[in-house]
Design a protein that fits this description.
It comes from Halobacteriovorax vibrionivorans. This protein is mainly alpha-helical and 156 residues long. The chain is built from 6 helices and 2 strands; from the N terminus they run H-H-H-E-E-H-H-H.
């Protein structure tokens, strides 16, 4: 990380179908090796599958899933006097979103043996209902922060 000046945040253009920046960020998170068209096919296919399975508007289900995944607190390591402490800190909004998208992608990829469209759609549906690996990751992060609440005064 540069000490001279802050990293510039790039402006992400909204996606062509839903005109939504969060959808474009999710497509970018899914993308591998710069293959954006493949990532778009995966994401839009997953949303179509979500709509056929739930019968609800897919963008609303996706947003609800993201809101269920977004963490409010996380722990950061801080070294003080030879000991390393896990200090709970609040998460900024843009980091909340990026963590949620990353966890959604990672836990969808970790599901076994089917196409990525099926795995992603199942993870979105589970997250919107408060289940799934990504929601469990958020709950584990909360538990870790709760367990280390005693070190909150060491915040910098």
């Amino acid at each position: 990380m540069s000490r001279k000046n802050r990293a510039q945040t790039r402006e992400v253009l909204p996606d062509p179908i839903f005109q939504d920046v969060v959808v474009a960020k999710c497509v970018n998170a899914i993308m591998k090796d710069g293959k954006k068209s493949v990532a778009e096919k995966i994401f839009y296919g997953a949303l179509q599958r979500v709509e056929s399975k739930t019968g609800e508007e897919p963008l609303k289900v996706f947003k609800k899933a993201l809101s269920n995944i977004k963490p409010a607190v996380e722990v950061k390591s801080r070294r003080i006097g030879g000991a390393t402490y896990q200090i709970p800190v609040e998460v900024r909004n843009n980091r909340r979103q990026s963590l949620a998208l990353r966890w959604l992608r990672d836990y969808a990829r970790a599901r076994g043996g089917r196409t990525m469209v099926e795995k992603l759609s199942d993870e979105i549906i589970d997250a919107s209902q408060g289940r799934g690996g990504a929601v469990k990751k958020r709950e584990d992060t909360y538990k870790m922060a709760e367990a280390n609440k005693a070190f909150a005064h060491l915040k910098w």
